[in-house]
User: What shape does this take?
Amino acid sequence: MIATFGEYIRQLRTNKGLTLTELAALLKLDSANLSKIENGKRDFDEKRLVILANVFDLDFDKLKAEYFGEQFAKKMYKYNCSTETLSVAEKKIKYLKEVNVKQAKLKL
Assistant: This one.
């Protein structure tokens, strides 16, 4: 996806024929906040990702990838990070997963 996450939500909403007010109610938001999200003036709350996936029958893992991918990209852009930052992040994720697995084994 090339669009922002807010634009993506707008596209999903219009494709399904929902008004801003209707989708906002399903997401337990007011329509003004949803409008700000769609226009890139406010971030979508990650706690509502499950609801969004259910409303539009989306694969939750793909939706998470879109959402968090944008969050990472915004931070990287804001701080003028190189793409090497992604490589470092991947290594750190792998390390954190390994540590978590080791700790889980110790608790048994």
